[in-house]
Amino acid sequence: MATTTSPRPAAPPDAREAALGRGRPIGGFELWTWVFMRISGLLLLVLAVGHTLIMHLPAGGVDRINFGFVAVRWQSPFWRTWDWMLLMLALLHGINGLRTITLDYVRPPGWRFAITMAFYVIGFTLMVLGTVIVVTFDPTGWGPIG
Amino acid sequence: MAIRSRKSKSDYGSIYRGHEGQWSWILHRITGVAVILFLFAHVVDTAAVGWGPEAYDRITAAYDNPIVRLLELGLVVAVLYHALNGLKITLIDFFPRLVSRIRPISIAFTAVFILTLIPTAWIMLGQAWDLARR
Q1: Rounded Cα–Cα distance for residues B105 and B66 (Å)
Q2: Inside any domain, residue B60
Q3: Which one of A36, A67, A80 would you mutate to disrupt binding with B, by most B Cβ within 10 Å of its Cβ?
Q4: Could you tell me which chain A residue has the CA closest to the CA of B59?
Q5: B96 vs A16: CB contact, 8 Å cut-off?
Q6: Residue B15 included in any domain
Q7: Which residue of A has its CA nearest to B53?
Q8: pLDDT, tens only, B71-95
Q9: Spatial CB neighbours of B50, under 8 Å, sequence gap ≥ 6
Q10: What distance in Å separates the CA atoms of residue A119 and residue A75, rounded to the nearest whole number?
C-alpha cells in the first residue's frame, strides 16, 4: 500500500515493508509529518467531507450561499470553530502533501527550496487571511442579519 | 566491454502494471493536488465576506455557471476519493497485519466510493441542469 513518501532514510525493507512500498519514516521531522498526515486526515474526514456534503448537496447546493447565508451561519461559534479548524488543518495537510510531491519529483536543490518555500508562503498567507476573516467577521455593518 | 542488461525498459511494461495499489496511489496524488489548488482559491473567495455583501456576492457569482458546476462535481468526487483512500491508507498503516487482506479491503473501499458517487453525481448534475435551464 502506498504511504507518504520520504526522501529521508526510511525503515530498512523487510518482506512486509516491500509489500507496503516506502514505509514509515524512522524518526525526526519526517516521522512527525507522517503521523500528522494520518491524524489530520482522520479529523478532515469529518471536517472536510462534512463541509463538502453540507455545502454542495442539500437545498440546491451552492445556489443558496450568499452573504446572508454566511452571516447567519457564522453567528454560531460552532461553525466558526469548525471552519477555522478546517482552514488550518486542510492547509497544513495540503501544503505538506505538496512538499512531499515536490521532494519526489524535483531534484535540483535550488528548485526544491524555491518551490517548497513558495508553498509555505502561500499556506502561511492564507492561514493568516482566513483566520483574520473568521475571527473578525461582523456582518452588522451591512444591515440586519437574516 | 561491459555486459549490458538485455532487458529494456519496455520488458517491464508500464510502471503501473504491478498492483492496483499503484493506481490508488497516483489517484490519491492527483485528487490531493486538485483539492489543495481549489482550496487556495476558496480561502480567497470566502475572505471576500470581510468586504461586505456586494463584494462577496459578486465573487461567488462565478459559481453560477453550469460548466463551473461540473468542475464542482469533480471537486466533490476528488474530496470523497481522497478521504476514503486516505482512510484506507491510515487503517493499513496503523494496523499493518491488515496488509494480508489488502485486496478485499481495496474492493470494499472502492465499492463505498462508487456507492457515494452515484447519489452525489445525481444531485449535483441535477443542480447543474436546473442552472442551465434558468
Answers
A1: 36
A2: yes
A3: A67
A4: A66
A5: yes
A6: no
A7: A67
A8: 999 999 999 999 999 999 999 888 8
A9: A132, A133, A136, A137
A10: 32
The parent domain of residue B112 ranges over 21-133
Q: Is there a contact between B14 and A104 (Cβ–Cβ < 8 Å)?
A: no
Domain membership of residue B126 (yes or no) is: yes
CA distance A78 to chain B (A): 18
Helices (H), strands (E): how many in chain A?
Answer: 5, 0
Instruction: Report d(CA B124, CA B130) in Å as an integer.
Output: 10
Mutate to test the interface with A, among B15, B25, B40, B49 (most CBs of A within 10 A): B49
Q: Using alpha carbons only, what angle is made at residue B77 by residues B75 and B81, rounded to the nearest 5 degrees?
A: 120
| Interface touch B87/A41, C-beta < 8 Å | yes
The complex's ipTM? Answer: 0.78
Domain count, chain B: 1
Q: Can you read off the three cell numbers belonging to residue B102?
A: 489488502
CATH of span A15-142: 1.20.1300.10
Task: Examine residue B48 and state whether it is found in any structural domain, yes or no.
Answer: yes
φ and ψ of A10, to 5 deg? -100, 175
Dmax of chain A from CA atoms?
A: 66
pLDDT in tens, A50-100: 999 898 888 777 777 888 888 899 999 999 999 999 999 999 999 999 999
CA gap A104, B121 in Å, rounded: 33
**Residue B45 maps to which CATH number?**
1.20.1300.10
Calculate the alpha carbon distances from A10 to B24, B68, B108, B113 in Å.
21, 42, 30, 31
